[in-house]
Design goal:
Largest sheet: 7 strands, parallel
Number of helices: 13
CATH topology of the largest domain: TIM Barrel
Keywords: Hydrolase
CATH superfamily of the largest domain: Glycosidases
Protein name: Glycosyl hydrolase
Helix content: 25-40%
Structural class: alpha/beta
CATH architecture of the largest domain: Alpha-Beta Barrel
InterPro entries: GH (IPR017853)
Strand order of the largest sheet: 6-3-2-1-9-8-7
Radius of gyration: 21 Å
Shape: globular
Distance between the termini: 35 Å
Number of strands: 12
GO molecular function: hydrolase activity
Strand content: 5-15%
């Protein structure tokens, strides 16, 4: 674990969004990175678009890879480390998949041998290109690639849990081959934790890769059910961090809050700073937190069409690189250089059965019980039902009390801050 929690941002270029790779402008990138570094953040997560970098299974564009390296070097000049997402994949409601996997060449992203060969070669190439850069953190396999594996995606690439496990093992190995010893990981959206039929499982998230990544978005039913300033809404990110720990084999496994943002209109712009402050404060109260990486750096320009409305205003900075109040909140938190939080001694029991994950989702009994505990002033974590009586496991995590959801009685607050 680092001496202090790391603070960063998911880099969304202010000019051209992620399409900037088509007309890469290093001066514009440098100006964006200057505006990020001015906030006192220490890292960026960057997103090559897979079909732009590997338009043919046998062609990985050298110029595109060189542009990625130039971006990483520009970040280093500004004191910023870089994590690179490989298989993009899915971003801001758009899918970016190469033509050699779709329509007339339709092949499963997770099981087709030729596709796997192409993916592994691509990830290995990106990792190797950055392996000698001191500011290279490591690879994330892709952004929320689990959304391709099940509904509600309109055209999913179905796979079993065992097939996904094999896919994760091979792709993480390709990253390690390209850049040995770096922090390589995978990251999914919260269906991994909440959706019963999702083949990307909590156990995979908490056991494969160097750290566990969680992505927290309160438009998943949390803010709709409970309101913008409720305990569940303001503690949702912390909940995912602590929920993930139930499945980890390493009692001190680091957890990276790799995506979290303030989505309008559920979080109105005038309340975004308060939401950011509360979310960050509660996440920092989670032990073994590797870092917080906000979504996102810059607003999407209104010159670009067809984005969901909320995507245009998620930036810490405007598309003119002007910091918002949310940027100042995150900058203040980063300046505080918070260290590790104290252990959480009360654990709520969660089902180990992956087909019972919906119990942990908004509206489920685990979710509701967790936030009743929080509303009563408890700092809960979670433990699998299969480990609830394992004294060695509990002691290793500092847990002294175990409760089940049916033991947590409703409170007058109803889980909402008064």
């Amino acid at each position: 674990m680092p001496a202090a929690v790391r603070f960063g941002v998911n880099y969304t270029p202010s000019v051209g969004w992620f399409h900037h790779w088509l007309d890469f402008d290093l001066d514009a990138v440098r100006a964006d990175l200057d505006s990020i570094a001015a906030l006192g953040l220490d890292h960026v997560r960057v997103f090559p678009l897979w079909p732009y970098f590997q338009p043919n299974r046998a062609l990985i564009r050298e110029r595109a890879v060189a542009d990625l390296v130039r971006l990483a070097d520009a970040a280093a000049e500004r004191g910023l480390d870089v994590n690179v997402d490989g298989l993009q994949g899915h971003l801001s409601s758009f899918d970016f998949l190469p033509a050699w996997t779709r329509t007339w060449h339709r092949r499963n992203l997770f099981t087709d041998p030729d596709v796997l060969d192409g993916q592994a070669a691509y990830l290995r190439t990106l990792a190797a290109a950055l392996a000698d850069r001191p500011n290279f953190i490591g690879m994330t396999l892709g952004n929320e690639v689990n959304q391709f594996a099940a509904g509600p995606h309109p055209d999913p690439d179905r796979a079993t849990g065992a097939q996904i496990d094999a896919w994760l093992e091979r792709m993480l190995a390709a990253c390690e081959e390209g850049a040995p010893g770096r922090l390589h990981l995978h990251a999914e959206y919260d269906a991994t934790w909440y959706q019963d039929d999702q083949p990307f499982t909590p156990a995979q998230a908490a056991r494969r890769g160097a750290v566990t990544a969680v992505h927290s978005w309160v438009f998943n039913g949390t803010a709709q059910r409970h309101g913008r300033s409720s305990v569940p809404t303001e503690h949702h990110a912390a909940y995912l961090v602590e929920l993930s720990k139930a499945w980890a084999d390493d009692p001190r496994r680091p957890v990276w809050l790799q995506e979290v943002g303030a989505p309008a209109p559920l979080i109105p712009p005038e309340h975004a700073a308060a939401f950011t402050e509360a979310t960050v404060a509660h996440a920092l109260d989670c032990p073994d937190l590797w870092g917080i990486t906000w979504w996102c750096s810059h607003d999407v320009s209104r010159q670009l069409a067809d984005f969901p409305e909320l995507e245009y205003g998620l930036g810490l900075l405007t598309s003119e690189r002007v910091p918002k109040d949310t940027a100042r909140v995150l900058a203040d938190a980063a300046a505080g250089k918070p260290g590790p939080a104290a252990a959480r001694t009360t654990a709520l029991v969660v089902p180990a059965d992956p087909f019972a994950r919906s119990r942990c989702a908004p509206g489920g009994p685990v979710f509701d019980a967790y936030f009743r505990l929080v509303a009563d002033g408890v700092r809960p974590t979670t433990v699998l039902d299969t480990r609830a009586h394992d004294q060695d496991h509990l002691a290793a995590r500092g847990i002294t009390e175990v409760v089940t959801p049916d033991q947590v009685l409703p409170t007058p607050q109803g889980g909402t801050r008064s």
